[in-house]
Amino acid sequence: MVNNDQKNKSSVSMFLVVGLSESTEPQLLLFLVFLCIYLITVLGNILILTVISSDQRLHTPMYFFLANLSIIDITLSSITVPRLLFILFTAQKYVLFSECVTQLLFFQFFVVIECYLLAVMAYDRYVAICFPLNYTLIMSRAVRFKMISACWACGLGNSVVQAFSISHLDFCGPNRVDNLFCDINPLLKLSCSDKWLGEAMFLPVAITTGTVPLAIILVTYGRIISEIAKIKSNRGRFKTFSTCGSHFTVVNLYFTTGTLCYIWPFFTDAMDKDVKVVAVLYSIMTPMLNPIIYSLRNREVKRALRKALGSNGVE
């Protein structure tokens, strides 16, 4: 599996993905737990997509972006959870080097798309609140598709950089990935290349893919809060900001767990078990919680859900 020739290229042909624990036996209880989480994630996001597509009142820019968020969440969860379920059910933890790197690249691709999509959704809320009369004109169909295309382009750019970075790292052993799945931090730790090389490749990518969209979100919410502060009545301020409630909650959840998942262990001696807990929250729980948050905190989505389920109750 690992030979002693460490001169130039990687000698590791397989990685041992530890998963949630060191156990070498199938973990059926955890398998059932994560299977339920995965099913809830997929079905919840499919339900959101179905409701948005079937209800004419939800054919607006805000729900166009929400539909894209649901697609990304389904994909992200499908990149990580099925492999984790396989490990839990069979206790077979070895994965080919090429499969590990492929999982990393696809995960990083869609993670970055979601980062920028959340920034786009923040801008959408900014336009809706600060320029309500010109909202549909500013957020036209053409503009929305350009924004989504830009998000995908950023994700693709990140994947190209990651592919280049990984291809220039050497893996001489050990081959133990102490994480739920193959991701950038665990692989950097395993590389036998100079540490500065990994840091030099990781930090610019982290700043570009994380800090830039977060900065956009903070600036737009600063403008939104400034505009809301001009409203005289408390009820009016609350009603206006409530249109951002779901997005604000999702952003806090996503970027907090993302920072803890990538930046925290990179600059600290965080324990592997703590990193795994954060990884579960970031990569598995967040895609499940997003449709729940939008369903519980959004009156229009709740109304459309009741209609789709055949209920005519009034809020």
Which key phrases capture this entry?
315 residues; mainly alpha; three-stranded mixed beta sheet; disordered N terminus
CATH class: Mainly Alpha
Q: How would the global form be characterised? A: globular
Number of domains: 1
Order of neighbouring strands in the sheet with most strands: 2-1-3
Number of helices: 11
N- to C-terminal distance: 61 Å
Largest sheet, in brief, is: 3 strands, mixed
For this structure, the CATH topology is Rhopdopsin 7-helix transmembrane proteins
Given as residue ranges, the uncertain stretches (5+ residues, pLDDT < 50) are 1-8
CATH superfamily: Rhodopsin 7-helix transmembrane proteins
Mind explaining what this structure looks like?
The model is unreliable at 1-8 (pLDDT under 50). The chain has a single domain (14-308), classed as Rhopdopsin 7-helix transmembrane proteins. The chain is globular and about 65 Å long. A three-stranded mixed β-sheet has the order 2-1-3. Helix 1 packs across helix 11 and helix 3 (97-130) packs antiparallel against helix 5. Helices cover 73% and strands 3% of the residues. With 315 residues, the protein is an all-alpha fold.
Secondary structure blueprint with pairings:
Elements lengths: L13 E4 L10 H27 L6 H30 L3 E3 H34 L4 H4 L2 H27 L8 E2 L6 H7 L4 H34 L5 H9 L2 H23 L4 H26 L1 H10 L7
Helix pairs in contact: 1-2, 1-10, 1-11, 2-3, 2-10, 3-5, 3-7, 3-9, 5-7, 9-10, 10-11
